[in-house]
Design a protein that fits this description.
Blueprint (H helix, E strand, L loop, with lengths): L1 H25 L7 E4 L17 E4 L5 H11 L3 E4 L16 E4 L2 H4 L3 H11 L5 E7 L7 H6 L4 E7 H4 L6 E8 L7 H15 L5 E5 L3
Parallel strand pairs: 1-2, 1-4, 2-3, 4-5
Antiparallel strand pairs: 5-7, 6-7, 6-8
């Protein structure tokens, strides 16, 4: 039991490190608006670039008073939306610079609904970053992301997805961008993914045909 608890603690802190790194690398500097699903107690707010314009946190159990305190401490403007993550997020089409989800997809009975809303709100070429617990039968996260044609490229870490203890879906998907001048950003997202997970070479990649 002691060894299991230690292993869980190691995985937990490693996932926190990866989450911080993924947010720091994939949320563009000066992003005007970021959408985060499953914001919880707001821990991730400390990981955002300090010049982020606004984080909109969607969580059915969002406690606005607590989250506002955390946002002030983190120095990141924040708006809480206490609603189911699967519900419409009310963001205009193509208006969000990044979407972050760290638990919402794995806990949802309909992760595809969250992914569809995320894709609708994302700007072309913008990333969906996911760090999701897949233990205890929680699955379908990667399938939900890869099944949507709105994403041109999906990167996910095979090493974390196949862990015998506390497997996680860790990755980034980039919304399809028809503007050829922005293709470099899509490639850079893949390079940043390897750096942020620390597991270069254990990556599964899916490019969608045009």
């Amino acid at each position: 039991l002691g060894g299991f608890a230690i292993a869980r603690a190691v995985v937990y802190w490693r996932v926190q490190f990866i989450t911080a790194s993924m947010i720091g690398r994939h949320v563009p500097p000066g992003a005007r608006r970021v959408l985060e699903y499953g914001v919880g107690q707001g821990r991730n707010l400390y990981y955002y670039p300090k010049n982020t314009g606004m984080v909109v946190g969607v969580d059915p159990d969002a406690k606005e008073d607590l989250l506002i305190q955390v946002s002030v401490a983190a120095g990141v403007p924040f708006v809480a939306k206490a609603q189911p993550c699967e519900a419409p997020n009310n963001q205009p089409d193509g208006s969000v610079d990044a979407v972050i989800t760290t638990g919402a997809l794995g806990a949802s009975k309909d992760p595809a609904a969250i992914v569809r809303e995320a894709a609708r709100a994302l700007k072309p070429g913008a990333p969906l970053v996911f760090v999701e617990d897949m233990s205890f039968g929680k699955g379908g996260v990667i399938d939900a992301v890869e099944a949507l044609d709105d994403f041109e490229r999906t990167e996910c870490d095979d090493g974390w997805a196949t862990l015998p203890l506390l497997p996680h879906a860790i990755g980034v998907a980039v919304k399809r961008d028809t503007d050829a001048s922005n293709k470099g950003a899509t490639s850079e997202a893949g390079d940043d993914f390897e750096s942020s997970t620390g597991l270069a070479g254990k990556r599964s990649k899916k490019r969608r045909p045009r």
